[in-house]
Amino acid sequence: MRYGHFDDERREYVIDRPDTPLPWINYLGTEAYFGIVTNTAGGYSFYRDAKLRRLTRYRYNNAPFDVGGRYLYVRDDATGDFWSPSWQPTQSELDDYECRHGLSYTRIAARRGGIRAETLYYVPLGETLEVWRVNVTNERDTAAELSLFSSVEFCLWDAQDDATNFQRNFSTGQVEVDGGTIYHKTEYRERRDHFAYFACSEPLAGFDTQREAFLGPYRGYDQPRVVEQGAATDSIAHGWAPIGSHHVRLALQPGESREVVFVLGYAENPRDDKFDPPGSQTINKRNVRPVIERWLRPETVADGLAALGDYWDRLLGGLHVTTPDPDTDRMVNIWNAYQCMVTFNLSRSASFYESGIGRGMGFRDSNQDLLGFVHMIPERARERILDIAATQMATGGAYHQYQPLTKRGNNDIGEGFNDDPLWLVLGVSAYVKETGDESILDVPVPFDNEPGSEQPLYEHLRRSVRYTQERLGPHGLPLIGRADWNDCLNLNCFSDTPGEPFQTTENVSGGTAESVFIAGQFVLAAKELAAIADLRGLGEEAGEYRAAAEKMTGVIVEHGWDGEWFRRAYDFHGNPIGSGENDEGQIFIEPQGMCVLGGVGLDDGLATRALRSVAERLATPHGIVLQQPAYSSYRIELGEISSYPPGYKENAGIFCHTNPWIMIAEAMVGNGDRAFDYYRRINPSAREELSELHRCEPYVYAQMIAGKDAPTHGEAKNSWLTGTAAWNFVAITQWILGIRPELTGLRIEPVLPADWPGFQATRAFRGATYEITVRRGAEAGLVVDGERLDGTVVPAAEPGTVLRVEVTVG
């Protein structure tokens, strides 16, 4: 069952009924100001940091799921009937409804009783504000007297404190109203010199800033008393719950339309301002007033929307493909690339599944996200790499997460996820391959953001590899620490007595549990760093890294091979995990993918055997599950993984993030049919017909899909912010289509499904444009501008060059 359709020409997903299985969301903002908006106008906004600079309040796990957002109410003043153009929160019956989620903007339109209202939401480039442009049209044969009410509920900045510290917060709310602008100036603990504002372009009939005055006692946003009565109260919030609501009266003749613009934004007082010094209770409006006035003008709003479209034209123009499969084209050219950029901006910090409170930017996550967006906006990739590296510790270890506002590691989540450091090598390698920018390796970067500790970025990469080499277990495999990629596989938990509370080793990074997954990742990272060392003329050092990779490969074959697949790990007691010796959890997906990505088993047939085991034991019609058999009960020696019911999340769920590793591995062994088959199984566009089962958005990847052991097999959860986005983009573009950046140039080495005659692509690479045509033929070959080249790598061309590349695959 579908709830909408793709409009590929306009790069929009069109939702034609509001009652989607879950709220289907979009993201507003591309730089510092961001917002989540659903197909029914739910969501929230923040500046840079979803925890520390939350502008609007949102209540998670609410019922209905999508309550709290950017709400508008249209009231017929003659009859008293009122409704929401976004359906929520009034849920009034609509004559028609349409939501168009585009690239960083959303339009929601509805009609009721001869009145049509359409709202455009977006964040202009270079601004710390969002625009709501509302068009109200009278389609009746008679004049209409209408009221339009806006509504936002302000958050008291720190979202966690806002949701818990009521004994204080109910006494701190402060607002100021100046003309059509409501200023929210509540401060958190000490004067922070920042404020929010909510402005309207039209003369006001009234306003409200106190929630209870607007809603009325014992009422919700579905039936606000002010809207019901048709008159604002001009309330001023003193403590309790500050909101922003404007009341605008509209007298419309038959066929007449009126445009009303609302602007919600964030501003700061200048630090050196003498008129409003820090610590004063006065907000500085002088700098922000011109901004508000400019963005309340319809022509400015129109120009800003056009500029946003141009921005996405530039970003998406770096790669465009035309293949025999429309779902592939749609995802590669639009939605997967778009999701990669959103995920880069936010890591895992703020969605409907991440509250923006519990975590910031992930060290591991952000490095993997680089893989999917570096070709679109390399200058921001460079900046992100340096931010990430600055949170690394001098040991080579890493904070698992850091806050985007402070760019410092979270103190309560120190090193111990022992895969984290190696991802920095892979992220930097991807950047240098894409850009050819070796200078980044010489940039001085501090450790743990401590002044005076700066070392070249290349030294950070050395320490990332050394971190693993200095932490090996009894079998010579890397210690897993608190966990590796699978945060829920906590093998340094144990109990001396069955039934007793678990203990953890004093230093989890020094526990005895070992990871075959990290071993495969180390092989891959050591080879990548060896190539970078060669690039820098460090041949002897490069040889050392290759030797380390070869040695670890031998350890994997000796202690990580189980006969038909790669083992997952060894627990604290030295028992194998992911082995035929186990009664449950005999085979895991992660090492089958990562070991092959590192090249383990490609020469001796182990890779092919491991991938055959994946196909036989882990693959389902909805994707590849994490492990089998699922754990049927809690096992203290495994940690959190066994606390999930069978088929969900890490306990045999389809963790979509890992599926592309198998796609890539299948491409590496030359199996294009199976690689592409796996790609389509979790491709959101290809699953659109299953929307009633899938439930999440059909235009972006979800983190997980319920596995075959679950009663809801095929149901998705945790959409949008997931490493699935970057890795699927890499799998389809770099390995199946085979257009892959290398240090020496652009490799074009497709591994296609047998029924594809070929495809076409345009790829920007280091300032040049590659117009690529791939077709099948009797003899494989590469021709560039009419000249046949040996191999599959097209050397990097001069910026501004246009190359015509013809590739024949056998």
UniProtKB/TrEMBL annotation:
SUPFAM superfamilies on file: Galactose mutarotase-like, Six-hairpin glycosidases
Coiled coil regions in record: none
Domain Glycosyl hydrolase 94 supersandwich: 11-281
Gene Ontology MF annotations: carbohydrate binding; glycosyltransferase activity
Domain of life the protein comes from: Bacteria
Cleaved signal peptide residues: none
GO biological process, alphabetically ordered: carbohydrate metabolic process
Protein name: Glycosyl transferase
Keywords for this protein: Glycosyltransferase, Transferase
Domain Glycosyl hydrolase 94 catalytic: 311-738
